[in-house]
Amino acid sequence: SELGFLSELHSLDLSDNFITGFVPSEFRFVDKLIDFDIKGNELQGGIPVLLCITEGINSNGVGPKGTNFDLLYSCDNIACARGTYSDFGHAIVPTEEDADGSQCVPCYDDEAQFFIGRDSCTDISIGMLQFRQDDIRHVAVYTTLALFTSAFIIHLVIMARRRKKYVLSENEDSSSQHQDPFPLQRQDSPLSVEDDEYEEYSDDDWTAADSETGTLAKKEGRDYSAIELADILPTIA
């Protein structure tokens, strides 16, 4: 293949050129090819299997010890398959042990369904606006946080109002307990005395002599004096 003569080619950037067709498997013969970028085109089909196992292209087959084999050797390292996308148009092999690197993720817009190497995703279209999957995810996260924050603030307001009502109720109960222990008598109580009645008899000086016992004492006093006089007068005469 003529591509095999490109023995000194290290980097090939064909991104965003609206290239159509299929990816030729002859790229595997470019021994020193390291960076291979075909994102943002209209390439169809899949990545040739022989190219997927070629070591070195986009760090394919190169990674730290212990890297998952499916991540180390993958066609996604060359270009994301149809129905998937990444910001780079291809997956990135992990550079550290136990890391996942950057993987191609599902996308359901029309372009991703037909073309490989997609670096963007417009899952939802509203009018003339298109929203990327990442943007939708961020909006969902921020909306969820806003809802939780609003719910927490409303909860605090409700608790504060309940606390205020409780304090006011306690103060009213405490105030009622400290009122006059001898409240005024009702007007219809037999113990109550009208001011007018009191003024009407205010000049009547009542004494113990006005009672039945006092009257009897006076009567006995008068009788005793008459008898005593009857005894005394003859003696004097």
From TrEMBL:
Keywords: Membrane, Transmembrane, Transmembrane helix. InterPro entries: Leu-rich_rpt, LRR_dom_sf. Pfam families: LRR_1. Residues 170-214 are annotated as: Disordered. The chain crosses the membrane at residues 139-158. Residues 193-207 have a biased composition (Acidic residues). This is Uncharacterized protein. It comes from Skeletonema marinoi. The lineage of its organism: Eukaryota, Sar, Stramenopiles, Ochrophyta, Bacillariophyta.
